Amino acid sequence: MKKFILLLMSATFVSTGIFAQVVNIVKNDGSTQQFDLADVASMTVGVVDSNASGEGFLRVHGAAGISQLFVEEIDSLYFNTDGTVAYFQTARSLSEFTLADVDSMTFSDVMDSTVYVNYAGSAATVINPMAPLGVSVSVSGADVTVDAAADISNLNYRLSGNSGDGMFKIYSDKKLNLYLDGVQITNPDGPAINIQSSKKMSVFLKTGTTSVLTDGETYATPPNDEDQKGAFFSEGQLIFAGSGALQINGVGSDEHGLVSDDYIEVNEGAITVLSAVKDGVHVNDGFFMNGGSLNINSDGDGIDGGAGPVEILGGNIVVLNGENDNDAIKCDSTILIAGGTVDLTVAGDQSKGINSDQDVVIAGGMLTISTSGNVVLEPDGSGFDPSYCTAIKAGTDVSISAATVILSTVGEAGRGISGDGNFSMSSGILSINSTGDGAAYTNADGDLDAYHGPCIKMDGNIDIAGGEITLNHSGDGGKALTNDLEMRFGTATNAPVINITTSGQNIVITGGRDPETAEAKAISADSAIVITSGTFNISSADDGIKSKAAITVNGGNINITNSYEGIEAPFITFTAGEVHVLASDDALNATFGVGGEQDDGSLLAMNGGYVVVSSSGGDGIDSNGRLHINGGTIVVHGPPSSPEVGVDVNGAFLVNGGFMVVSGTNSNMTEIPSQSSGQYSLLMRTSTSLNAGALFHLEDAAGNELVTFAPERRYYSITFSSAALSNGTTYRIYTGGSYSGGTEADGVYSGGTYSG
Fold first, then answer.
1. Torsions phi, psi of 100, nearest 5?
2. 548 and 407 both lie in a single domain
3. CA–CA dist 501, 478 (Å, integer)
4. What is the pLDDT of residue 26?
5. Is residue 708 in some structural domain?
6. How many CB atoms lie within 10 A of CB 314?
7. pLDDT confidence of residue 40
8. Checking DSSP bridges between strand 201-205 and strand 176-180, what pairing results, if any?
9. Are 198 and 296 part of one and the same domain?
10. Cβ proximity of 595 and 602 under 8 Å
11. In a shared domain, residues 447 and 542
C-alpha cells in the first residue's frame, strides 16, 4: 500500500539565528502553521486511508539546486540536537541537508528528472536533483562521471558550456536522454562523450545551437577494459532528434567518429563528422536514417552498419572518402534507400560507394555516387585477382524502383553496379557514366585475361521491367550491361527506356593473326536475352546486343545506330516489335562462334515484327546455321562490295511468309531462298553497280506495285519475297526513276506513283 504525506503542503525554513530555526507549513487552503524546530523531534510519513491522494515527490530547494525524494519512500524526517541539520530516512538511503542552505521544500506530482552539467574551461558545475534517488555524479576538473543506479527510466542529462579538457561519461541500467545544449567538449585522452550503458539513449540537439565534440589522439587506458571506440561512444542505441547541430572531430589515432555498439537512428538534426581516422559512423547492429542531415569526411568507412542493416528513409547524407580499400556506406546485411538524398564521393583504389554483403535495395530518394579509385591486382594463385573500385557492390541482389540513381566512375576499370546475384529495375531513373580503361593481366590460373569495368555487371539474372536507364562507357573494353545468366526487358504492362553508348577500344589479350580481345559491348549475356517491350537506343564500339545462348525479341523498339555487329547469338528470334540496326560488320549474326562454312546448328527466325538492318562492311544477315523467315517485315541494306553479301546462310534458307527485300553485292556467295520455301522469292542481279539511292521498282503486268526500294549503298543485286509473288506471272523491273506521293520508310516506298 502506498504511503502519502499527511499534509499536502510546502515547507519553508526561516532562519532567525544560528540555532533558532522554524518551519512554516503552508496548507492547500492557504493557511500557515509554524513550528520551532527546537521543539520538533521528528516528522513521520504515513497513510491516512486507502483513498488518500498526495504529491509524489518532495523537492528540497537550496543553494546547490534541487534534490528530490519519493514521498512514498520517506520513512521519517528528523533533526540534529541543535536543529541545524535535517535527515530524511528513505528506503534507499539517509539524506542529509544543512537547513541554512535550504530555501524551501515543495511537493509535486512531477519529478524534475534532469541532471544539469555546465562546463567552464577546466571545471564543470553539476546540478543533480536526482542524487537522493540514486544518481551520483563525480567531478574531477571537467571530467564528469555519472552513475545512474536510480532504477528510473528516461532520466535527462543536459550538457552546456565549453571545456578543452573534459569529458562526460555515464553508467546506467535504464533508458536515458541526453540534451546537447551547444556544449563543446574536447577530451585529450579519450572520448568526449562515453556512454557505458547498453540501454537506449535519445540524443536531443537543441534548436539554434551547435555542439562540438573532439577526442584525443591517444586514449588513456580505460577501467575494467571498457570499450571507448570514438569521439562519441555508446554501448547502447543512439537515437538523434532535435533541430540543432552536432560536429564531431575524430582525431583518435585508431578510433572512429560516432560509435554505437548497438545501432544508431537519426531522425532530426544536422550531424557532421569533420574527421575520423577510422570510420565516420561505426555501429554493430545497424544504421537508420529517417530525417535530418549527416555529413562525413573520414579516412575509414563513411558509415559501417556492422552486422545490421543500413536503412535510409529520409534526410540528407553526404560522405567524402579518399582512402584506399574503404567504403562510403557498408554493412554485412541489407542496404535500403527508400527516401532522402545520398551523395557519396569515393577516391580510394578498390573502394566502394555502397557495399553490402547481402541485397542493395533502392526504392526511392536520390542517390549520387562518384568514384575515382583504380582497380587493384591482388596476388592470387598463379597470378592476380582484380579488386575493383565500384559505385554499388552487392553480395546478392540489386534492385531499383521509384528512385533517381546517378553514378560516375573515372578510375581504371571502375565499375558502376556489381553484384553476385540478380539485378532488377521496375521504375525510376538510372544513369551511369564510366571512363576508366581496362587492360590485360594474368589471372589466378596463370592464364592471360582482361580486367574491365562494366557499367552494370551481375553474376545472376538481369530483369529490367521499367524505368529509364542511360549507360555511357568510353573506357577500353568497357561494357555497358553484362551478366552471367539471363536478361529480360519489359513486361506486358511496363516498358523501360534504355540508352547505351560504348566507345572504348578493344583490349588485346593475346596477339597473333587471330588475337583474343575483350570488347566494349553494349549488352552482353552468357545466357538468354528476352525483350518483351521497351525502347532501346544503342551506340556500341563493338556488339550492340550479344548472347552466348539466345536473343528473342517479342516487342519493343530497338535502335542500334552504331555497332561492329548489331545482334549476335546462336539463336535469334523476332516475333514482334521494331528493330533498326546499323553495323560495320554483320548486322544480324546467328552463330555459335566456331567459324567455318558449315551449318553450326544456329538459327535466325523471323516470325513477326519489323526489322531493318544495314551493314557497311559485313553481311546484312549472317547465319552460320539456318535462316527461316515466316512472317513480319525484314529490310536489308547490304554492303557495297564483295566478298560480303546482303544475306549469308550456311544452312537452310527458308522463306515461308512475310515481306523481305535485300540489297547486295555481285559476289558469287549471294544467297537465294531454298526451293523448299513456302513462299516465292525473286533474285535480280546486274553486272554493273547501281548507285546508292537508285530506286529498284517491281510491278506486275497490270502495273501494280510490289516493291519500290532505295538501298543506302551501291548495289548489284536485290532479293525480294512477298506473299504477292506468284508463279507464272509476268513482272516488270525498273531501276532509277523517281517516286512521288505516298510514304517512305527505311528506303521502302509505298502508296505513291513510280516514274521510270
1. -65, -20
2. yes
3. 10
4. 58
5. yes
6. 16
7. 57
8. parallel
9. yes
10. no
11. yes
- Within 10 angstroms of residue 463's Cβ, the number of other Cβ atoms is 18
Residue 48: closest CA among 108, 1, 105? 1
DSSP state of 306: B
Q: By the 8 A CB rule, do 525 and 487 touch?
A: yes
Position 30 in a domain: yes
Q: 140: domain range? A: 113-308
Please give the Cα distance from 731 to 728 (Å, whole number). 10
* Whole-model pTM over 0.85: yes
The Cα-based distances of 355 to 271, 301, 305, 359, 570 in angstroms read 22, 10, 10, 9, 36
d(CA 490, CA 304): 36
Of 308, 327, 360, the domain-final residue: 308
Report cis status (omega within 30 of 0) of the bond before 222.
Answer: no
Distance separating alpha carbons of residues 170 and 485, to the nearest angstrom: 54
| Residue 100 · residue 84 · CB < 8 Å | yes
Start-end of H helices in 174-241: none
Task: Please check whether residue 491 lies inside any domain of the structure.
Answer: yes
Does 219 share its domain with 269? yes
Is residue 529 located within the same domain as residue 581?
A: no
Per-residue pLDDT tens digits for 441-469: 999 999 999 999 999 999 999 999 999 99
Residue 470, strand partner residues: 431, 499
Question: In this structure, what C-alpha cell is assigned to residue 751?
Answer: 502508296
Within a domain: 711: yes
Same-domain pairing of 510 and 468: yes
Can you give the three-state secondary structure of 110-168, one letter per residue? CCCCEEEEEEECCEEEEECCCHHHCEEEEEECEEEEEEECCCCCCEEEEEEEEECCEEE
Share of the chain above pLDDT 90, in %: 79
Greatest extent of the chain over all pairs of C-alpha atoms, in Å: 140
Note whether 663 and 573 are same-domain residues: yes
Is residue 400 located within the same domain as residue 535? yes
Say which residue the cell 509476268 belongs to: 730
Q: Is 100 helix (H, G, I), strand (E, B) or coil?
A: helix
Q: Which residues of the chain have pLDDT under 50?
A: 1-20, 45-54
